[in-house]
Amino acid sequence: MISVEEAQARVIAAFKPIDTEHEDLSHFAGRVAAEDIKAVVDNPPAPIATVNGYAVRQGDGEGVRKIVGRSTPGHPYRATVGTNEAVRIVIGGVLPEGTDAIAFREDPIEGSDEMQFSYSAAHPEHIREAGLDFKAGSVLVPAGKRVTARDMAVLASGGVTQAKMRRRPRVAIASVGDELYAPGAERRPGGIYASTGYGLSAMIANWGGAPCDFGILEDNAQEIATIADADAELVVTLGGHSVGDTELIARALGSTDFSMETWPVAYRPGRPLLFGQLGGTPMLGFPGNPASALVCALLFIRPSLDVMLGTNQNTCSLPQRFKCGCHNMTARLTAELPATDGRKTYVRARLVMQGGEVWAEPYPILEYPMLSVLAKADALVVLPPNGPAAKSGDVVEIIPLDGY
Amino acid sequence: MISVEEAQARVIAAFKPIDTEHEDLSHFAGRVAAEDIKAVVDNPPAPIATVNGYAVRQGDGEGVRKIVGRSTPGHPYRATVGTNEAVRIVIGGVLPEGTDAIAFREDPIEGSDEMQFSYSAAHPEHIREAGLDFKAGSVLVPAGKRVTARDMAVLASGGVTQAKMRRRPRVAIASVGDELYAPGAERRPGGIYASTGYGLSAMIANWGGAPCDFGILEDNAQEIATIADADAELVVTLGGHSVGDTELIARALGSTDFSMETWPVAYRPGRPLLFGQLGGTPMLGFPGNPASALVCALLFIRPSLDVMLGTNQNTCSLPQRFKCGCHNMTARLTAELPATDGRKTYVRARLVMQGGEVWAEPYPILEYPMLSVLAKADALVVLPPNGPAAKSGDVVEIIPLDGY
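Predict the joint structure of the above. Result:
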């Protein structure tokens, strides 16, 4: 038996950051930045009025000003404002050269373009200075961050039009088994609809990968060997008795460039994990039981994608952590849970929030993992191997299941 | 001044659930179900062995059995098993007709197809009964639920191939202002890169809508009137002084089928909200400041989309609530916050989790909302109007900002 952590470390070691591609701004959302994305320009680009008033020179003091022009959004006053001159300005207008404050109207002098100001009118709070939000050259999105919707607005306001993004890692999925049928197809007795691939594809997309479902393969070496054509960074097989038969498959491939090990991993639910490579591409073999396979995906595919995407987990906000499952999160138990044996145990649970606290309400532990229970779970409660019984109110580690 | 709740209620009242469309299973993920999606078949479809052994008739008791065949996944034993007969079965094989238990091998009788069993071998825990996970006709995904990755696997295993989904509501976005330029374009002094549309498009997609960015319009009635061509369920304008000039725009349209009201809403940050209709399509007018406009989107577009999508918020898991912002969530404050005036106040904050508790660390309250601060926030702390100062450790309402 090897621990989950050891198995995860061995799997992850097979991956390295994937290549990058130049993308246009409009395709950034949800992608992982492959470089620090910096502002091209200051924001705001120039001092901007936040009120309607008159742009004046603070040094002029109180007195009469000659109104020499207007500055409105998109229509700046182009000349330099001289002594005792003022420019009418509206919200969003750029402060003209020479001015440094906004004044408000006193009585206009009838029949003239002059206006009386009763005080020097320094109102710096009514001017948004150039670069107040950010300066040209500042990092708007650091390398390794997933670009959020709000980041999109920040990047656009900084004049960013292109940046290097990590390519989406391709994950080929093959469902192996003579008992499998496409959903809705006519079946022999005991025939099962292949379902894991549908769930896995959606998860991989949520985690930033590009799933490619090979569909159903018969459980024999020749069929399984066809996966060698997959143009992918990771191949995942679901079920199948022949998958682990290295010799048979290598013979079917007419090649020895295939290896596979069986690891008895100390966790439940779950069966032995297969791990190997096919023509240099890492290959994971998951159990045929959909609920077990989908837990394996969370434990082994998600961190592999993070390595390939170069995800910097420090850039991941708490709300995002509820989706990506990349961090250890915690909750209080609403009920007791039994002591564990030598296996790390993942217990499906419902989460509720009360008074700023997250509570995990475990579902009954089942001998056989069922899809319907997994689907209604909000999180897995993680119990360490050889751990004592947990009491109601105990703080436990959880893996939230949103993007999952 | 009208309250945020009153403004939200008036906006929401303009929308109704959108029409539905038949979708194929492979396009369900992330969509909102428009009907209860029911299992077509039992899962498992028949009693299935969960161990390798022999399918026997429990009533036969101990003794010698004749091995009459095999049942392996995809290759069932087709006949009925008679008295004192047994069928070799492997994991995933369907239990043959006539059998009701799994027995384990005692000594095989040399040179014959018979086998000795020492006990009656009732092992119901080694059989997964038909329909144990779910029965045909059970609701797998209720109407109004957003289909998750795990739901995809459940639906496939239940033989679902098609269902009615809500169409994605189209939201047309127009950025209005003579000061606006496309990111990266050459600008006049004080020219601003239009950025809100990029953030808003990503948010609308995250919330289940279909954004359509009309780009930049000049701030005059003729330009704004071109939005009348938008084929959308909602039109959103960003900035623009002419947008609120009902008479001018109606004249530019050559029609009176345009109305717009200005609502002074009691909240900060935020400026008056415009709400009206254009040829029967609801229309929202947000402030030009991107950070203000994006908060308006959270308060007014998200709930409008929920009405159109018929979202049943009870089906929304706690992890999803960190994304969709549809529920009131809570956190403890790490620092004090001042009393509020008559306006509902949204304070940007960072969230951290410790010992099952969510803590909100407020950023300094700024007079002018800045994009860079909004982008790094994890949540908005919601302070009610005319509320007392909040102390460190107080439980406050938050709106998490993930899909945002």
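Residues 298 and 404 of chain A are 8 Å apart (CA to CA).
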